[in-house]
Write a structure and sequence with these properties.
The chain is α+β, with helices and mostly antiparallel strands. The strands form 3 sheets. Strands 1, 3, 4, 5, 6, 7 and 10 form a 7-stranded mixed beta sheet that branches. A 5-stranded antiparallel beta sheet has the order 2-12-11-8-9. It has a 4-stranded antiparallel beta sheet with strand order 15-14-13-16. The N terminus is likely disordered. It is built from 11 helices and 16 strands. The longest helix has 36 residues. Bound molecules: magnesium ion. Magnesium ion binds next to helix 5.
């Protein structure tokens, strides 16, 4: 059951070991083929299955070249369009290799590539290898086969069971190495803690139906045991083709866990807003208390001295004078020094102090007219 080392590309260093997801990647020649033309990649967070086409040796060359090129063009994040570009690079590499006489003309490969991290899975797909999601014991095929029988199945001409054993089941309609303008399917899904992802070649799905695959994935909790059991099931059913299976368990929370963090962030923002509002309120109250408690002397447009509560001037458009009393004292009758002082609008701790100062000004004025009447 040991996988062929030439077909299995496992991460050897920690350079790209960002995913914490436990996984197992297995590939096996099967019971009836001499060569394993499948190639698989397990370089977390990047995983891929490539099923080579083209007969003896050429298929193995094509799938290995596809995997190598994917690895070299791997995107930096689980982004489906970026993963598609890496798969398109693999397509170009196979086409160029054919033209250069490497492998055989017409060689090709399927490609099901998966990048999964931080609760997000991006998939790029060409051919009939598949990606599945097991969630809550329910198995869902994420990818769509590019094959003749899949088209017949979609049009209702055959059943799923007939498709699985159809003599043309290996005829695929889209593959790497066939078209420079290859269209690559792409998918992005959110993955949750407890989800299990499966990538596999048609050597599994043509031998084992979905219900049996689901039963194995549900019964084998360890991903390594699950992947081995899937290979065993294909071989026990006849092992007509090379068979590959990569099982990845999602053991961390995805984006659905983030709202708690966001709500905490909003709580902090709210607390800061309340704190700033409280400080502004306290400052405004203090300024208001201060400006209400003090007074100043001024001269009205009519030349009469006024006693004012507050402080001279404005803040933005708001006057800081809350009350103004026009006295009977004419500013022009005061002595020049006090007139000059009044133009400075002198401030006092209270209206009483302001009134006392005005009384003193009147006394200093030597103006009989003023001294005959007290300022009001
Ligand atoms: Mg195959």
């Amino acid at each position: 059951m040991a996988p062929s080392s030439s077909n299995l590309h496992l991460s050897a260093t920690g350079r790209r070991q960002r995913s914490r997801y436990p996984f197992s990647a297995q590939t096996n020649v099967g019971r009836q083929r001499a060569l394993n033309e499948d190639s698989i990649l397990a370089l977390p967070p990047l995983f891929a299955v490539a099923d080579g086409l083209g007969g003896h040796e050429a298929g193995e060359v094509a799938s290995a070249l596809a995997i190598d090129t994917l690895r070299n063009h791997a995107p930096r994040a689980a982004d489906a369009p970026a993963l598609v570009r890496a798969v398109q690079a693999a397509n170009n590499a196979i086409l160029q290799a054919s033209d250069a006489g490497i492998g055989r003309e017409g060689m090709g490969s399927t490609m099901t590539a998966l990048m999964v991290e931080h609760g997000k899975a991006a998939i790029a797909q060409v051919g009939d290898s598949r990606a599945y999601l097991l969630r809550g014991r329910q198995l869902t095929q994420l990818t769509e086969d590019h094959s003749v029988v899949a088209a017949m199945l979609r049009s209702g001409h055959i059943t799923a069971e007939e498709a699985r054993v159809h003599p043309q089941r290996s005829v695929i309609t889209r593959a790497l190495g066939s078209d420079p303008n290859l269209i690559v399917d792409q998918f992005e899904i959110t993955v949750l803690r407890g989800d299990r992802l499966l990538l596999c070649s048609d050597g599994l799905t043509s031998m084992v139906d979905d219900a049996h695959i689901a039963a194995i994935l549900n019964s084998k909790l360890d991903p390594h045991q699950a992947a081995l059991a899937l290979i065993d099931a294909a071989n026990n059913a006849g092992g007509a083709d090379n068979v590959s299976a990569i099982v990845i368990d999602i053991d961390e929370d995805g984006p659905t866990a983030h709202p708690r963090k966001r709500s905490k962030l909003w709580l902090w923002v709210l607390l800061w807003v309340l704190l700033i509002a409280a400080i502004l309120g306290a400052v405004t109250y203090g300024v208001s208390r201060y400006t209400h408690s003090i007074a100043y002397l001024d001269v009205s447009d009519g030349g009469m001295v006024t006693i004012n509560q507050g402080v001279p001037g404005h803040v933005m458009e708001f006057s800081l004078t809350y009350d103004s009393t026009v006295t009977t004292v004419t500013a022009g009758d005061l002595n020049p020094t006090d007139q000059s002082t009044l133009r400075q609008r002198p401030t006092f701790n209270s209206q009483a102090e302001a009134r006392n100062e005005l009384d003193d000004m009147v006394q200093r004025s030597n103006s009989p007219a003023l001294q005959q009447e007290q300022p009001q």
